[in-house]
Amino acid sequence: MGLFSKRVKAQRVASFDDFQRAVASGRPVFVDFWKPNCQPCRTMDGIVDELADEFGDEAVVLKANLDDVPDLFTKFKVKSTPTFVVVTPQGSGVHQRFRRSGLIKKDQLVEQLQRAIAAEPPGHDPVD
To answer: How far apart are CA 108 and CA 111, in angstroms?
Structure first.
């Protein structure tokens, strides 16, 4: 890779359909639920982009803005930002493998994504 190679960034979710397309990829999906006036969200922004770059071929990393996709916030019952969720496809829905709110160390997020990538398909707890 060249010194100035372009880094992959997290995908912005513009609609609920964007989320569904990410799940349809068959890969684990990491979602960063955020809102513009949230300072902790800004602090985590660079880490989320690093995750997208590091896991680009193995997982889908999304950023969901409350102003753009309030229905996704409602589906996952997000009450505070930032909230981070890792889901994997399960039947017609998704299996929530991880959820945490607030500032989180990058290595904890990396560990959760690695677990989701290595995991067998889940057998319970679908979120429709």
So the answer is: 5
Residues recognised as catalytic: 38, 41
- Give me the domains of the chain, ranges plus CATH numbers: 11-119 (3.40.30.10)
Does the pTM of the predicted model rise above 0.85?
A: yes
pLDDT by residue, tens only, the chain of 128 residues: 455 567 889 999 999 999 999 999 999 999 999 999 999 999 999 999 999 999 988 999 999 999 999 999 999 999 999 999 999 998 888 999 999 999 999 999 999 999 999 985 544 444 55
Q: How far apart are CA 116 and CA 59, in angstroms?
A: 9
